């Protein structure tokens, strides 16, 4: 159930959580709601390349544990570890996505056809490096959206980049040539407060021309 609709509190309430309350679990229904709001994030030409694996069982966490390096406390205590991948062949869903948009009355048929005729051949022609960049950006947008949505439901998260990238997909029976690991997010209820962080002043990181 959503607990927080105050956006300022959602942003300022974040901490770098390392230890969660092990008694807190998240039901599949609630996790689906969180992910349904997560995938409202934007993506390049709406190809939605994000793919999620929700690691919540003891067996699955045991498989993940050796891959998360110095992040084992999050793995052991969180309600779940959410693996975020980018699908390098996301364009195979292009026709389904644009047909759905047309049927929902969001775009006219001519635009749908023009988009598909342009986008699909373009994506098919991109190198793995170019596709990797696209899905990494889009996957990161989804990760940030997930963190904000989770906070609005009263849960804490921690983004994890320190893991065995080359082993993650294969360990969870995914095609490692197709699915690019982007990030892991731990999620649950904070047990031990993480340290609050500070930010550089805007004048240090932004300029006006």
TrEMBL record:
InterPro entries for this protein: Nitroreductase (IPR029479), Nitroreductase-like (IPR000415)
Keywords of the record: Oxidoreductase
Domain called Nitroreductase: residue spans: 12-189
Superkingdom field: Bacteria
Family recorded in the similarity comment: Belongs to the nitroreductase family.
Single GO MF annotation: oxidoreductase activity
Gene3D superfamilies attached to this UniProt entry: NADH Oxidase
Protein name as annotated: NAD(P)H nitroreductase
Lineage of the organism: Bacteria, Bacillati, Bacillota, Bacilli, Bacillales
Keyword Chaperone: no
Pfam families for this protein: Nitroreductase
Organism name: Listeria kieliensis
Coiled coil region boundaries: none
């Amino acid at each position: 159930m959503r607990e927080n609709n105050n956006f300022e509190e959602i942003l300022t309430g974040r901490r770098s959580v390392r230890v969660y309350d092990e008694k807190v679990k998240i039901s599949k229904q609630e996790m689906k709601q969180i992910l349904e709001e997560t995938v409202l994030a934007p993506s390049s030409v709406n190809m939605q390349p994000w793919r999620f694996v929700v690691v919540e069982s003891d067996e699955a966490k045991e498989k993940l544990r050796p891959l998360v390096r110095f992040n084992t406390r999050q793995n052991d205590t969180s309600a779940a570890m959410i693996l975020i991948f980018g699908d390098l062949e996301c364009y195979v869903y292009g026709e389904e996505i644009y047909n759905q948009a047309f049927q929902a009355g969001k775009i006219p048929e001519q635009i749908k056809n023009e988009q598909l005729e342009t986008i699909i051949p373009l994506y098919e022609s991109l190198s793995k490096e170019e596709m990797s960049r696209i899905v990494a950006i889009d996957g990161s947008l989804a990760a940030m959206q997930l963190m904000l949505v989770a906070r609005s439901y009263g849960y804490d998260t921690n983004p994890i980049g320190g893991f065995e990238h080359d082993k993650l997909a294969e360990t969870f029976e995914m095609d490692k040539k197709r699915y690019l690991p982007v990030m892991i997010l731990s999620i649950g209820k904070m047990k031990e407060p993480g340290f609050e962080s500070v930010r550089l002043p805007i004048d240090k990181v932004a300029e006006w021309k």
